Amino acid sequence: MHRFFVEESSINQSRVVIRGSDAHHIADVLRMKIGEEIHVCTGDEWEYTCEISAVSKEEVVATVVDASKPGKELASSITLYQCLPKKDKMELIIQKAVELGATRIVPVESSRVVVHLDKKREPSRVERWNKVAEAAAKQSGRMVMPVVSHVLSYIDALNDAADLDVRLIPYEKYDDMNSTREIVNDIRPGQSVGVIIGPEGGFEEAEFRKAREKGFEPVSLGRRILRTETAGMFMLSVLGFMLDGRGE
Question: Model's pTM, two decimal places?
Fold first, then answer.
């Protein structure tokens, strides 16, 4: 069933109004008809099953026929701090991060990042990344709309994570898997988690030390060297496996 995100104010008692690009998508792309059902979410734990009662490319009106709390989100919110990769890999990273449960993705410029976004082009690029996140959230049945932030410097990213309960930095020179298992196992439901992933060339030693000073705990991704687009997916998969359903 197709899924759409709306503001809470768009739901009034049993009536839902969808406007903008989603209305156009329902009317002109999906060509949905009166009587067909859709899922609507407001970014919280509720999922509404709605029956379309009026369709136009400007506005779609639907009636709520059921409301439930399917519990699809992880027990902890996860922020992925991703150092900018080459070419268009960022879109793939965002798509998969959303599918795996990340609630926020923060693009980061570290010392060894090759791609540096032009400040004039950054707003349009971030807008594009958020559209990728929205599409992935709809496809994967997310209950919340993950957000892709503007690009942060490495230091700003570390400071941004200061209020998170758990901060992790995968590092290729750190190989203590037992400690890594203990750290992941100790994450409690409701704790916020941040993971920072280095660029293709990895973190500089000074960057790793700075992260440790800011409270990031080193973790190992095993004996193999993973690409930057793989490392974040690895960590999100491990965290998702450990956290999924833990808060029930």
Answer: 0.88
Q: How far is CA 191 from the centre of its chain?
A: 16
Q: Which residues contact 155 (CB under 8 A, 6 or more apart)?
A: 210
Residues 6+ apart with CB under 8 A from 222: 177
Looking at the structure, tell me whether residues 147 and 34 fall in a common domain: no
Give the model confidence (pLDDT) of 10-27 as tens digits.
998 899 999 999 999 999
Q: Which whole-number Å values give the CA distances from 112 to 14, 92, 93, 157, 236, in the listed order? A: 52, 20, 18, 15, 23
Identify the sign of the CA torsion 19, 134, 103, 1: positive
CB 213 within 8 A of CB 155: no
User: Are 177 and 55 part of one and the same domain?
Assistant: no
β-pairing, 147-148 with 59-68? unpaired
